[in-house]
Amino acid sequence: MGPEFESQRRYRGEKTKDSLLFNISNKLKYILMNKEISDSIIYPEEVVSSAIERIFWNIRDLVYNDVTTIITLLDGGMYLTAHVMERMEQHDCIKTRNIVNKNIKVSSYHGQEHGNLDFEWIPDLDVANKPVILIDDFCDSGYTISEVAKYLKKVHHVSTIYVFILLLRKNRYQPSEYVDQLYAGIEDETDNFYAGCGLDDNSKGRWVPYIYKV
Question: Rounded to the nearest 5°, which phi and psi values hold at 141?
Fold first, then answer.
């Protein structure tokens, strides 16, 4: 390797300094946000982590029984899926079981919970006569999950749908004929609005490792 020029050293130093400043800035924002909402945390990081661990082991059991397609509802389900897939990789499940991860994005017309769903993004799916795992962050009445499950069964002829939710509003959830099994990491019986771990408050808080009341 040839000698490093002064300009290269200066550029590398500036890049490192910028990176450090960026990381420090992000950490300060995180600390300040934590300080602001610490009194509003309902489900702390250790509770969420335990819930995700339980969800992972249930999904792993399905994967080893040849349920290898995981469908995530965007954007909220990304948090749970990311943590589940990280554990799958640690246990070498992704390669050995040929796991396929797909994303679906839906929204309600005019923001109404019980309006018709708008399927904004639908991937190519090879799931006819196959079971699938459906992941989302939060389930209130169950309307969105039911409509997506209905779509998967009616249009793509999925045989069985296993739903995994990080936070379930147990007192409001209405079971669906299209969902064969639903597992929730945390069951909640309040009317609180939450953010964190996939849930967001006007695009804020989605990636913090705890769930707090807004």
Answer: -80, -25
Residue 163's beta-bridge partner residues?
134, 182
How many domains is the chain built from? Answer: 2
Q: What is the DSSP string of 135-185?
A: EEEEESSSHHHHHHHHHHHHTS--SEEEEEEEEEETTT----TT-SEEEEE
67 and 8 in a single domain? The answer is no
At 70-110, the pLDDT tens digits run 999 999 999 999 999 999 999 888 777 889 999 999 986 54
Q: Which residue type does 109 have?
A: Y
Sheet holding 194-195, edge to edge: 41-43, 211-213, 194-195
At what angle are helices 45-63 and 77-90 packed, to 10 degrees?
60
Q: Can you give the residue range of the structural domain that contains 126?
A: 44-213
Whether omega for the bond prior to residue 61 falls within 30 degrees of 0, making it cis, is no
The number of residues making up the chain comes to: 214
Residue 145's DSSP bridge partners are: none
- Residue 139 β-bridge partners: 168
Exposed / middle / buried, residue 211 (Cβ in 10 Å: 0-12, 13-18, 19+): buried
Same domain, 77 and 18: no
